[in-house]
Amino acid sequence: MKIITAITLALLFVACGSKEESTQNVEAKLVIGKSLNGLTLQDQFEKVHTLKSTTATVVFAFDKESAHTCNDYFETKEATYLSDNNTEFIADVSAAPSIIKSLFILPGLKDFKHTVLLLNEKAVAAPFRKDMDVEKIIALSVEDGKITKITAISTQKELIALIEAK
User: Fold this and answer.
1) H/E/C letters for each residue in 58-104?
2) Angle at 130 between CA 35 and CA 59, to 5 degrees
3) I need a surface site. Which of 53, 73, 92, 126 has the fewest CB within 10 A?
4) Distance CA 41, CA 25 (A)
5) Residue pLDDT, tens place only, 103-153
6) Residue 150 CA, distance from chain mean position
7) Where are the domains of the chain?
8) Residue 63 in contact with residue 17, Cβ under 8 Å?
9) DSSP classification of residue 137
10) Which CATH superfamily is domain 2-19+26-164 in?
11) Predicted structure pTM score
12) What DSSP designation does 102 have?
């Protein structure tokens, strides 16, 4: 089963690593001062989640490397680690062809014990990708639903420090 999961994740991250950008004619959503209130996405089990008022950090993975870094770390923690730290994790799988998503990516994501919110469609993902360094982990600091800080990070150590900062 681990081999199937590894193959599935490899396909996920290859698909997510697409350099194609369709962000030219959209308004950026990840901007300091912008509200994330009402942000609603499905997780890997197709359950709908709306950003909680207590959310303090939102972590985005737009490509293969950043997704690996996040998921590898989250898998070492309890299933409640993200919610215990008022954090949401969002992965962009929009670049993958539908058949690859339905046959490999989504079933593979169900092996994770942590919640992965998904950007499934290019049109939905584009405003989140606009003006971001999509090859890095993008971490948002959020207060009262508004973005107060945007940090681009690369390492697991930086991810831990950001999530666990009190």
Assistant:
1) EEEECCHHHHHHHHHHHCCCCCCHHHHCCEEEEEECCCCCHHHHHHH
2) 60
3) 53
4) 22
5) 888 888 899 999 999 999 999 999 999 999 999 999 999 999 999 999 999
6) 14
7) 2-19+26-164
8) yes
9) E
10) Glutaredoxin (3.40.30.10)
11) 0.84
12) I
